[in-house]
């Protein structure tokens, strides 16, 4: 069954996508914790859900199968092994102390899969626990989390990424997001639908986030290196995709280590086989190091000998690796200021449903006009609340099946 899943580009006809409908984890956000939890504001949750439902509907109405992360998680947690692993993972936190850990472990074991999924995603606060009293519960504040909530689950792009028929479990850099990949690993390992799916990477490895991984064309992967994906993470991913023959070239693309450009997909996304929507304010300075494999000296990915070319302008290096004349750039915005505003609001962060059809936030009027002028059909969705986590349609989706591009 596993062979039917996977993607080898950003634009091949989207068949199946994994989303996360915002839920009670967003209700944990307060003005005191939102920075740490990586939200810029406090979303109005029911409106965020409406916006998200409209996003899902836009995909379904175009014959895309929508899977929800929490539904997959609940189904996964029907297995005793999954429950055991999920609880162990959540209890590994060094905040806890043995008294509380033992109490919580037993309490969680008694929950139904739905309830357990709720605690794993929305977290547990100190004042929500009735037992396990001891030093730790007494000294922690009542609103301290014993299990942290995961509001950024919304951005399913980052916690796993398919590269051809393999799924990479990523390794998230920000402490607020670390635990997300325990859940995606569990789903891809123990959910019956994904049984036997070959996996690469893993949350114990060097940091790589899915928002930094762009499948430019079959065999060509761009990896942003910045706030989230480290240079060592990019190298590790390159080794694994070469070892498994998933790609011939990995382009490592340095991006500024700041919030506005936290992932490569905040700066550019593919909207056609040879068109990319890109933030013009960085386009000229964006460079790429092409990495290839020149020898297989030993076993596993560590034995590969890699070659790193001199840095070149990103669009030049990309076109070369993709064996096309030009990778055409469509600019965000109209002028540098509009571009900066629309880039911040994820104007670059589009999700292609097929070549030349892309989902985008409706608010980025100038960018969407440019996309349309370039022959791209824009499927516009509302995102006033969804956007408060700083992520657009691409961040909020993990393509699980895309048709291969015609050769
Ligand atoms: N692929 C993306 N651009 N994801 C956006 C993630 C946003 C999220 N609040 C974070 O800071 O991690």
From TrEMBL:
Enzyme class: hydrolase
Top-level lineage group: Bacteria
Catalytically driven reaction(s): L-arginine + H2O = L-citrulline + NH4(+)
InterPro entries for the chain: Arg_deiminase
One GO cellular component term: cytoplasm
EC number: 3.5.3.6
Keywords for the protein's UniProt record, in alphabetical order: Arginine metabolism, Cytoplasm, Hydrolase
Cell location: Cytoplasm
Family membership noted in the UniProt record: Belongs to the arginine deiminase family.
NCBIfam families: PRK01388.1 (NF002381)
UniProt-recorded name of the protein: Arginine deiminase
Annotated organism of origin: Nocardioides iriomotensis
Gene that specifies this protein: arcA
């Amino acid at each position: 069954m596993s062979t039917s899943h996977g993607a080898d580009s950003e634009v091949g006809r989207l068949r199946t996508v994994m989303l996360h409908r915002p839920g009670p984890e967003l209700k944990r956000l307060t003005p005191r914790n939102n920075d740490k939890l990586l939200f810029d504001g406090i979303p109005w949750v029911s409106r965020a859900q409406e916006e998200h439902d409209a996003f899902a509907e836009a995909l379904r109405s175009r014959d895309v199968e929508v899977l929800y992360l929490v539904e997959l998680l609940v189904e996964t947690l029907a297995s005793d092994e999954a429950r055991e692993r999920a609880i162990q993972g959540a209890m590994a936190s060094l905040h806890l102390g043995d008294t509380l850990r033992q109490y919580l472990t037993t309490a969680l074991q008694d929950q139904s899969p739905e309830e357990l999924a709720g605690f794993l995603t929305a977290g547990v606060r100190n004042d929500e626990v009735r037992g396990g009293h001891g030093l730790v519960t007494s000294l922690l504040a009542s609103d301290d989390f014993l299990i942290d909530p995961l509001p950024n689950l919304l951005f399913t792009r980052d916690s796993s990424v398919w590269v051809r028929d393999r799924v990479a479990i990523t390794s998230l850099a920000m402490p607020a997001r670390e635990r997300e990949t325990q859940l995606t690993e569990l789903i891809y390992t123990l959910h019956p639908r994904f049984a036997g799916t070959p996996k690469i990477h893993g949350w114990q490895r060097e940091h790589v986030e899915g928002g930094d991984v762009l499948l430019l064309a079959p065999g060509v992967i761009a990896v942003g290196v910045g706030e989230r994906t480290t240079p060592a993470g990019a190298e590790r991913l390159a080794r694994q995709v070469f070892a498994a023959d998933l790609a011939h070239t990995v382009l490592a693309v340095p991006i500024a280590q700041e919030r506005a450009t936290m992932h490569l997909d905040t700066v550019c996304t593919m909207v056609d086989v040879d068109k990319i929507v890109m933030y013009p304010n960085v386009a000229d300075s964006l460079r790429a190091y092409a990495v290839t494999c020149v020898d297989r000296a030993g076993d596993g990915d560590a034995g590969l000998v890699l070659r790193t070319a001199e840095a070149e302008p990103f669009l030049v290096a990309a076109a070369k690796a993709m064996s096309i004349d030009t990778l055409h750039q469509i600019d965000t915005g109209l002028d540098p200021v509009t571009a900066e505003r629309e880039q911040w609001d994820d104007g670059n962060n589009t999700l292609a449903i097929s070549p030349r059809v892309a989902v985008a936030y409706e608010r980025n009027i100038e960018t969407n006009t440019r996309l349309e002028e370039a022959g791209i059909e824009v499927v516009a969705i509302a995102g006033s609340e969804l956007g408060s986590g700083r992520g657009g349609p691409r961040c909020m989706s993990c393509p699980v099946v895309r048709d291969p591009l015609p050769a």
